[in-house]
Specification:
The protein folds into 2 domains: 62 residues, Nuclear Transport Factor 2, Chain: A (Roll); 150 residues, Glutaredoxin. The protein contains 8 helices and 11 strands. The longest helix is centred in the C-terminal third of the chain and has 18 residues. The radius of gyration is 20 Å and the shape is globular.
Length: 240
């Protein structure tokens, strides 16, 4: 198991043992004390789970503060997503942005999914509304086909786009259903996919706000702008 945030030796052995029993072989990250007493929380397979300090109880679900009516699980996930996405440099994204963007969203996308294509058909409108779009690849069929273990068509197409001389042009052509030349080079596609898995992405498109909030799947340009304005105002007013 891999541990982040807290060193493994600062967590009760009963907690790590319970996680090992419940999720054998799984990557366990962001292990730390939970907001509720005598529990720890950890990210396992893109989901936040809670483990009692004695290792007896494991809860897989949403944790709320009843008094404040606040979803503490989502607050933790926002933090996880923000930190994870901050580690992806601009050089490893495909970016469509206006000169002076008001807002920036990260979008996990598949080249063939219908709603992903509809989203990109309106990329000029998103930019006209002041929204920059940072794309990361999330091939819906995964990286390798089962049981053959061969690279999937979605993955290979994503690699070909990344390796094109003009990535943005190849990206748009692929979104339009056009054939693009097969190419190979060092690329971030698998890293993008596994990153999405770790932070809970389970479909495309997935739109993520700067503070790590998932804004949904396909959202039309003006509606997305409204959501970003409301979300920004709410975040400033509440601090979370």
């Amino acid at each position: 198991m891999a541990f982040t945030v807290m060193a493994a030796n600062t967590v009760p052995a009963a907690v790590t043992a319970a996680l090992a029993r419940m999720a054998p072989g799984a990557e366990v990250t962001h292990l730390q004390k939970a907001p509720m007493p005598d529990f720890y929380q950890a990210l396992v397979g893109g989901r936040m789970v809670y483990v009692s300090a004695d290792g007896t109880w494991v809860i897989d679900g949403q944790l709320y503060n009843a008094d404040k009516q606040r979803n503490l699980t989502e607050r933790s996930m926002r933090s996880v997503r923000t930190r994870a996405l901050a580690e992806v440099p601009a050089s490893k994204r495909i970016i469509f942005a206006p000169p002076d963007p008001k807002y920036t969203v990260t979008v996990f996308t598949d080249l063939d999914c219908p709603y992903c294509r509809v989203f990109h058909q309106h990329i000029k409108q998103y930019n006209a509304e002041g929204i920059a779009v940072d794309y990361l690849f999330w091939p819906r069929t995964g990286i390798k086909a089962f049981p053959s273990g061969k690279p999937t068509k979605s993955y290979l197409k994503s690699v070909s786009v990344w390796c094109a001389k003009d990535r943005k042009a190849a990206f748009t052509a692929a979104k339009d259903g056009k054939s693009i030349p097969s190419r190979h080079c060092t690329n971030p596609v698998a890293d993008d996919f596994h990153l999405g898995e770790r932070i809970g992405v389970n479909g495309t498109p997935t739109i993520i706000a700067p503070d790590g909030t998932v804004l949904g799947g396909y959202v039309p340009p003006k509606e997305l702008l409204t959501m970003l304005k409301q979300h920004s105002a709410h975040s400033k007013g509440h601090g979370s």
